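Example record for the data management plan.
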Amino acid sequence: TGVQTCALPISIAMTTYNGECYIQEQLDSIIAQRMANWELVICDDCSSDNTWLILQEYSQKDGRVKIFRNEKNLGFKRNFEKAISFCTGEYIALCDQDDVWSENHLSILLQNIGCHDLICANALYIDSSGNTTGLSVKRTGFYVSENKNEQFFQLFFQNYVQGCTCLFKKCLVEKIIPIPDEYQFHDWWIAVVAAMNGGAYYIDEKIVNYRIHSKSITNSNNRNCFSALKNKLKNSRAYYRDILNVHNYLNCIELDESQKMYKRKAEKIISCFSTWKQRFLCLHEYIQNWQLICFDSNSLKFPFYFAKKILLCC
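Corresponding structural encoding:
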């Protein structure tokens, strides 16, 4: 029992925007951490409700809470980028404004990160009133490979790192900032960079109550919107060209309602391919610009080869 201390301080990067409904419960859960040696860096994105007043109150009560207010609205990704850049700890944890942390959140992550550059864990879903749904974010059978090349492959098609459950080493910061425009979510990009350096690690501890409500950013952005198509898309150069041909044909004729529907679907698939192409262009540039010391010469060929293969498809 009692509060634990740590010789290597942790920074917690939190972003806020009109979060007055839930922010106090989250702040209280952070202050109640059994590990005491941390700083909480909060960037508020021009909230118009009482969020800033609440943050000022907590900052005055606890010197570990450091608050910053943006002059203009940056959006959640750029705001997280800014908060991360202000962190001084040797480890950085990400934090949403509307969740609730377990009291061992930080200590569990720190104890398990080991030689990896990033660690993430599981979370329990709660509703807007804080009632548990009985469901966890990661389902039975969820698997993260220990092989960094396989992690990279997994992360390209779908993000398995829940930002609010992750901790990463400060050495990643200079490599993840700026976050590329091609990645909609900051945690996805951080996970990709970690996989290509010291690797990511997953534990099944449920360390966060992850709140689902109507104003949640991630609730309004479905990151799996193309999941039904990804197996077809990832290796199908011919499929992509067929879709382009269909789309070009539909542009040349007068369309009935069913044909308009097919055209919309074709445009959606083409857009999906374009997004993946831009993402791999970004990764290819990253690989060329950074010396990835955790990859040997043979394993480094994998991301180059795969990036080239995807680019040829588009």
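Summary line stored alongside the record: The beta strands are 10-16, 38-44, 65-69, 91-95, 100-101, 118-126, 132-136, 167-169, 200-211.
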